[in-house]
Amino acid sequence: AVPSPTGMGLPAAVRDRVAAVRRGSALPERLRLYDGWAARYEQDVAALEYRAPHLAAASLAFAFPAPHAEARLLDVACGTGLVARELHRRGFRCLHGVDGSAGMLERARNTGLYQELRLCVLGRDPLPAPAEHYDAVTLVGALGEGQVPSTVLPELLRVTKPGGFLCLTTRSNPSNLRYKAELEAALGQLEQSGAWQKLLAQELEYWERAVTEEESTQGNGYISGVVYIYQKCPVPYLEED
After folding, report:
1. Which of 13, 59, 116, 151 has a CA-to-CA distance to 71 between 20 and 30 Å?
2. pTM
3. β-strands 94-99, 196-209: how paired?
């Protein structure tokens, strides 16, 4: 059979595993799927040509004032450590990670890139960190339909230092557009309220390979995605009476 032009040449097993975790199943089932996916996750996302970790880390490093080595970063929904690898390549050394899947955390631990790793189910548990603790917080790949709710944004802000950075990503494929609109409304409300300032919202065409014909928006076999960089507003200076 001639492969279709939309790059559906992905192995069916890869497509099925990706579709399963994005289907929006109930939380316990979703965590079970991620635990089961951990061993194959990196080879699957390599087959997808998943570029979000690289694109997000490059954007954050660009926004970040040097030097990077002293900065304390929290990698939220860290998975197996793909984002940490990219951040480490760009000079970030103090990396903490949280994820809802024990199987994924085990893989992340084996990278040796994190100084601290904790189990935390976003949207249900508070982040295991004091307020204003991190110079930057990343949430790459998990803001999507059936994954992490956009209601987690204030919790990400809580653990970020005033003047610190937040790097977030979402996908622009058809089945995620409703979620993306909700996310962007929530991002905008926080900006209007003076909580943070948008530095970047960059739409990138070749985010990853589409897993179905319908998801490939440009007909090129890929879906697009967005990297957002926000800076938490400094605490307003209050003059003493």
Report:
1. 151
2. 0.91
3. unpaired
What CATH number does residue 212 fall under?
A: 3.40.50.150
pLDDT values of the chain reduced to their tens digit, one per residue, 241 residues: 434 444 457 888 898 888 888 776 788 888 999 999 999 999 999 999 999 999 999 999 999 987 788 999 999 999 999 999 999 999 999 999 999 999 999 999 999 999 999 999 998 999 999 999 999 999 999 999 888 999 999 999 999 999 999 999 999 999 999 999 999 999 999 999 999 999 999 999 999 999 888 888 678 899 999 999 999 998 765 555 5
Residue 181 lies in a domain: yes
Are 88 and 53 spatial neighbours (Cβ–Cβ below 8 Å)?
no
Other C-beta atoms closer than 10 Å to the C-beta of 152 total 21
Reading the block at residue 224, the tokens are: 């697009």
Tokens 């003076």 belong to 194
Number of domains in the chain: 1
Q: Is residue 40 part of a domain?
A: yes
Domain containing residue 25: 12-232
